[in-house]
Amino acid sequence: MSTGRHFCIWFDDGDGVEVVCGCGARAVLVVDEETGEQVLVTLAEEPLALAATA
Ligand SMILES: [Zn+2]
User: With contact defined as beta carbons under 8 Å apart, do 21 and 13 qualify?
Assistant: First the structure.
């Protein structure tokens, strides 16, 4: 019991589209048009601050 690995457990937000995890992560269910499979796509919460400098 040493890992801090976290598996997101998605549950319906009430919206029907977005799902959320207890850790605050969010995702949306997207249907792949080719395969018809539902794919869970996680949404990045963090802004892309690392790409600010050049
Ligand atoms: Zn999570």
Answer: no
